[in-house]
Design brief:
Distance between the termini of chain A: 43 Å
Structural class of chain B: alpha+beta
Shape of chain B: elongated
Strand content of chain A: 5-15%
Strand content of chain B: 15-25%
Radius of gyration of chain A: 27 Å
Largest sheet of chain B: 4 strands, mixed
CATH architecture of the largest domain in chain B: 2-Layer Sandwich
CATH topology of the largest domain in chain B: Alpha-Beta Plaits
Shape of chain A: globular
Distance between the termini of chain B: 61 Å
Number of helices of chain B: 9
Oligomer: heterodimer
Structural class of chain A: alpha/beta
Radius of gyration of chain B: 24 Å
Largest sheet of chain A: 6 strands, mixed
Number of domains of chain B: 2
Chain lengths: ~850, ~300
């Protein structure tokens, strides 16, 4: 979330799409209801199903799963056409005025400039700004500084190195230059007319116009007082273009001036209590803690890595840009010091060589594909149920059959540790499965202390309620013992490259039982030598906890496990254990409750809550403002900005971008599949893409080649299927809890009344849902909450099924249901940016059992 | 479950003075259920089960999110899910938390013949005293909301107590505490009525629900559980909430005029018996027939 849960109460307008917070985040959803009750805020729910969130909405619009970009692109078009945009914000706080390189081509045919069909990659040279300065009012003038546009290279020997941003960006503050970002964006979405949106999404034109009119009404006549928020969850991420859906939302919020403001923002609702924390700690293989970029094989030493990953500012010359990631060396060296302690020295590049530098895709679907192909021999699965989570369950089960060993740390006998008992595997077959499975009983969430980071980036410490039962052990104790034993083996027997293991810093009070308080203190970081602030002369002694990431050094005198967590556990104590309930502003900031990264800021980019002069857009919702007398930014929240930057300096509020401004146009491939989002069809779709039938799908999507990676045609599989969760169950756990099982006793499939009538199915009849990959069996839930849709002139049905039940659980063990996991149906194709599988919007057919 | 600290104003099937009468220190309490902000999360169902120590029972999927068709003797709080299509074709999923309404004029109490099996406290809570329940089930007939349920194992009738044990010590009912959206409120009747009317006005003026209103049916003297409904003109849409609930006339007749007729019949029967005895004396034994006749 750029904002936070409680902040939702400050909004005037909510667009909830790709998420169902009433069911999946019921406690947080109270703030949506507060906004409705106390501010008369409106709620728009856009979803393939009429959900329990929709039941509280002022307007519900049924959309075909996987057509979100068409809807949002249509919204952009509507906002521009009807002047419901934030002009001042747009010019000053976004790259709308920046001029894009000549040769950049919009995807009228589904492809941006620079596409290489052989490798299915883009050369991103033209996806960049032009250099050259101020072209305001000189619409016709070529922005290039004298030289012709660079030719697009043919990409002979693999991908070219990523192009760099120009330091002195060409711009046109009148937004009239034909190649300025605003004009290109306008052109890009001019194709997303209400009629086209209707063809793609199935939303009748009048309903679409009602929805976009309601949402953009906050910016009627450009008035800046009101604020709208966009709220989403995995309904947006689980597509082969998921990142681009979220980017479209970010663009809308920039266009309407809703970023950085109380009651605004783009707000991702995380599905587990600590999934935000997992992501912060480098849950993705491509990143390091604190979203530092992961090393690649070309990073031959620390210097090369830092040169590649440390950006230099790129902006119009008269403007200022903080370019906060210029501090990457401080963050990275402090991380290396936290990991390798005294073994990380200036001389050895702070042991940068110890880092693994994967040269291939190591994301989720690749792990299973590699295991299926015999490249991965073993797996340690903690805190997740791998067989159930990912797409294409059959493939994953067959991959595990080929593994030598599997270690599962769990609180229940789950489907992963018992993959060999999956339905369809006979007793004879079971004898031929030679995977050795070690099941380790772990402690449950209430049995361990530690911190949890919620969707709002609040890091909150929790305490164990009860000790783990029986032989169950804490996860960190299990991992510590494995590590200590492996290290012992390296010590005694040697190995290929023992240094990273032998030199890993493990300075805990009890090596076999690392206290998580000490881990949390490591994440915050401490001084390794006496440090003095050059301005304030404040001194931090060696060994003291650091007050925040501003103190981090790139010379080895500080250590910090995760720079964005620096400030969470200072000399003043554990900020994450604070329980202050004061809220002086009444805006739900609660500055003394727990601690929010970064630097306890509750709303990110909050400089954008003020106009260029530093005055709040809405005086009734003041977050921060410029205080001329003190020469500082002050307010109810911690300024997410350089505290003494005078508004006259025109420093951009989006300090994490080298441009200092928000990106309507994502340059140089920071998003790999295009600078502007474009609607592509899901890999399995009932229609060809009406925008460009010859390039129906995202051109960067790759498919695997095992016999399990099969795809269905719309002729055979004509129904669009989506998966989801229910409020009554929590993922794959609560099927082991009688109370939850009582609330939702059996798996079901939600199907429209019309489809049921066609197939002669009545509610509670057992049906099969069949995709090209598997068959799911459950009872039919015949409902009017899903309706047939007209998609590009074709009648299309959508069905949906919850993911919770599997083949182990209370009902499963009593054989009260068919014991089929939902992900038997889903395909292992992923978003090229985030590697998230396309679990929403795939094709199936249904049959009566 | 008896709550000694709570004033009792009426006792079922009881003659004579009411013990504890006059110890008035209570407000009239009220639970407000704003169905327009209910998200059907069932936290209230689980809280009710856990607080009251009710046990797990097996359920079956029935083409709905609803946990079971009706409340049961050990499941006192049930959200009823109702798909509803409005005239303009738009969809609604109406979710209403069903439980005892705690009527001001409780039909169950009126129908109950057992001494002190049902009491109504001065704060408005209608509470079953299972120790005194004879399991006759008359309260089930008396209730216009289909709430009291008979337990075949305990052979007694159970229902929601409005957490009279919690309320007696100054806590809100368990369902209120568990509700995440603020759909449930608890306070005095007058406060809740005001809050409900304000919300209904907002729904009419801002949200386009012209018929939004408050459900506090006068036919049972008003209730201590009130609803805000999007469509107060059609409460039946919300899982069969009766439009104009009354205590059944059979119960009223039986408990008022017919009760005296019944009593008269008993007294008359006894008097007739006495007259018969005095007139004819005790019944004389018939002579025993000889064995041979009995064999035939």
């Amino acid at each position: 979330m750029t904002n936070g849960w409680i902040d939702i109460k400050n909004t005037d307008m909510m667009l909830i799409m790709g998420g169902n917070p009433a069911e999946n985040h019921p406690c947080g959803f109270k703030w949506a209801m507060e906004a409705k009750r106390n501010r008369n805020a409106k709620l728009i729910s856009v979803d393939p199903r009429f959900t329990r969130t929709s039941s509280t909405a002022d307007l519900f619009v049924q959309i075909r799963a996987g057509s979100d970009i068409a809807f949002l692109g249509g919204l952009i078009r509507y906002a521009i056409e009807n002047n419901r945009i934030a002009k001042e914000y747009l010019v000053n706080y976004t790259n709308a005025a920046f001029i894009v390189k000549e040769g950049f081509k919009l995807p009228d045919d589904g492809l941006y400039s620079g596409f290489n069909a052989a490798s299915a990659t883009y050369d991103k040279t033209t996806w960049n700004y032009e250099g050259g300065g101020d072209f305001s009012g000189k619409a016709g003038a070529a922005a290039a500084s004298g030289h012709a546009p660079e030719p697009v290279p043919g990409n002979p020997g693999g991908p070219a190195p990523p192009p760099a941003l120009p330091p002195n960006v060409a711009y046109d503050l009148t937004l009239q230059h034909p190649r300025c970002v605003f004009q290109l964006m306008k052109q890009q979405y001019s194709r997303y007319t209400p009629e086209t949106v209707e063809r793609i999404t199935g939303i009748p034109k009048d309903q679409f116009l009602k929805a976009v009119d309601m949402f953009t009404s906050v910016r009627k006549d450009g008035d800046m007082k009101k604020v709208a928020t966009i709220i989403y969850a995995v309904g947006w991420t689980q597509h082969t273009f998921g990142t681009q859906i979220i980017r479209t939302a970010a663009m809308i919020q920039l266009l309407l001036g809703n970023m950085g403001r109380a009651g605004g923002g783009v707000n991702a609702l995380r599905g587990h209590s600590n999934i935000q924390g997992a992501t912060d700690m480098a849950g993705l293989y491509e990143s390091l803690p604190g979203y530092l970029k992961g090393p690649v094989p070309d990073d031959t030493n620390l210097g090369v890595y830092l040169k590649r990953t440390t950006p230099t500012s790129s902006k119009p010359a008269p403007w200022d840009s903080m370019n906060y990631y210029q501090n990457t060396p401080q963050f990275m060296v402090s991380l290396l010091k936290a990991l390798y302690g005294d073994a990380a020295t200036k001389e050895n590049g702070f042991a940068f060589d110890y880092f693994p530098k994967p040269g291939q895709d190591c994301s989720w679907t690749h792990i299973w594909d590699d295991m299926y192909n015999g490249k991965i021999k073993g797996m340690m699965a903690f805190g997740m149920n791998g067989v159930m989570i990912g797409p294409d369950t059959n493939k994953n089960i067959n991959a595990l059959k080929k593994a030598d060993w599997l270690v599962v740390g769990e609180i229940y006998q789950d489907e992963t540790s018992e993959f060999w008992r999956a339905p369809g595997i006979t007793a004879d077959e079971q004898k031929n499965i030679n995977t050795t499975v070690y099941r380790l009983p772990c402690a449950g969430f209430a049995e361990k202390d530690g911190s949890m980071t919620n969707s709002a980036r609040w890091v909150t410490w929790k305490y164990a309620a009860v000790p783990p039962p029986g032989d169950a052990r804490l996860d960190q104790d299990i991992i510590a013992e494995i590590f200590l034993r492996v290290r012992g083996l390296y010590k005694s027997d040697g190995g290929k490259f023992p240094d990273p293991i032998l030199n890993l810093s493990w300075a805990y009070a009890d090596a076999a039982h690392p206290p998580l308080t000490q881990v949390a203190m490591e994440l915050n970081g401490r001084a390794l030598a006496d440090l003095t602030d050059p301005v304030t002369k404040q001194v931090i002694k060696a060994g003291q906890q650091l007050p925040g990431f501003a103190w981090l050094k790139d010379d080895g005198t500080t250590m910090c496990g995760n720079w964005i967590y620096s400030g969470s556990w200072t000399e003043a104590g554990a900020q994450i254990q604070r329980r202050g309930t004061e809220d002086p502003s009444g805006m739900g900031v609660y500055p003394n409750w727990a601690w929010s990264w970064p630097a306890n800021r509750r709303v990110l980019y909050n400089r954008a809550s003020c106009n260029a002069d530093g005055k709040p857009w809405d005086p009734d919702r003041k977050q921060i403002w410029w205080n001329e007398a003190s020469g500082k930014w002050v307010g109810n929240d911690v300024p997410d900005f350089k505290p003494d930057s005078h508004p006259k300096d025109h420093m951009g509020p989006f300090i994490m971008n080298p441009e200092g401004v928000g990106r309507l146009f994502a340059p140089i491939g920071v998003i790999v599949d295009g600078p502007f989002p474009e609607h592509y069809e899901p890999i399995e779709s009932p229609i060809k893409n009406p925008l460009h039938p010859d390039q129906s799908n995202n051109p960067l999507v790759k498919k695997f080649n095992t016999p399990y990676d099969k795809f269905g045609s719309p002729e055979e599989y004509s129904i669009v299927c989506t998966t989801y969760r229910l409020t009554e169950q929590y993922h794959y756990w609560t099927k082991n809890n009688p109370m939850n099982v009582q609330l939702i006793p059996e798996p079901f499939v939600e199907i429209p009344v019309e489809l049921a009538e066609e197939k002669g199915i009545r509610g509670t009849d057992v049906i099969h849902v069949i995709s090209a990959r598997g068959t799911y069996t459950a009872k039919a839930f015949v409902t009017r909450r899903l309706r047939p849709m007209m998609i590009d002139g074709k009648k299309v049905y959508q069905v949906g099924l919850p993911i919770h039940q599997g083949f182990r659980g209370i009902d499963e063990d009593e054989e009260r249901n068919a014991r089929t996991p939902a992900n038997l149906l889903t395909p292992a194709v992923t978003d090229p940016n985030a590697h998230t599988p396309e679990s929403k919007g795939f094709l199936v057919k249904i049959e009566k059992a | 479950m008896s709550q000694a600290s709570t004033e009792i104003v009426r006792i079922s099937g009881h003659a004579g003075s009411v013990p504890g009468a006059g110890l008035n220190r209570e407000f009239q309490v009220c639970k407000l259920v704003d169905t327009t902000t209910c998200i059907g999360c069932k936290a209230c169902e689980v809280a009710c089960l856990e607080w009251n120590g009710n046990t797990f029972s097996e359920t079956t999927f029935d083409n709905s999110y609803q946990t079971m068709p009706e409340t049961t003797w050990n499941y006192w709080n049930l959200i009823k899910f109702n798909e509803h299509e409005r005239e303009d074709g738009s969809m609604m999923l109406l979710m209403r938390k069903d439980q005892c309404m705690h009527c001001e004029d409780p039909g169950c109490l009126a129908a109950c013949p057992a001494d002190a099996a049902i009491v109504q406290y001065a704060n408005g809570i209608v509470d079953f005293q299972e120790a005194n329940c004879i399991g006759c089930g008359y309260c089930i007939t008396g209730c216009p909301f289909n709430i009291p349920k008979f337990s075949p194992t305990a052979r007694k009738v159970f229902k929601c107590t409005l957490c009279s044990d919690r309320v007696a010590v100054g806590l809100e009912p368990a369902c209120i505490k568990a509700c995440p959206t603020g759909c449930l409120h608890f306070g005095t009747k007058s406060e809740m009525k005001e809050l409900a009317e304000t919300r209904a006005e907002q729904l009419r003026d801002v949200s386009g629900f012209a018929d939004a209103g408050v459900y506090d049916p006068p036919g049972v003297g008003g209730t201590h559980v009130i609803y805000v409904l999007h469509d107060a003109k059609n409460p039946e849409l919300y899982g069969g909430l009766p439009k104009d609930p009354h205590i059944p006339y059979s119960v009223r007749l039986w408990k008022a005029p017919l009760k005296w007729l019944g009593n008269l019949a008993i007294v008359g029967g006894l008097a007739g018996l006495a007259w018969h005895y005095m007139r004819y004396g005790p019944k004389k034994a018939e002579p025993i027939p000889p064995d041979d006749e009995r064999r035939v």
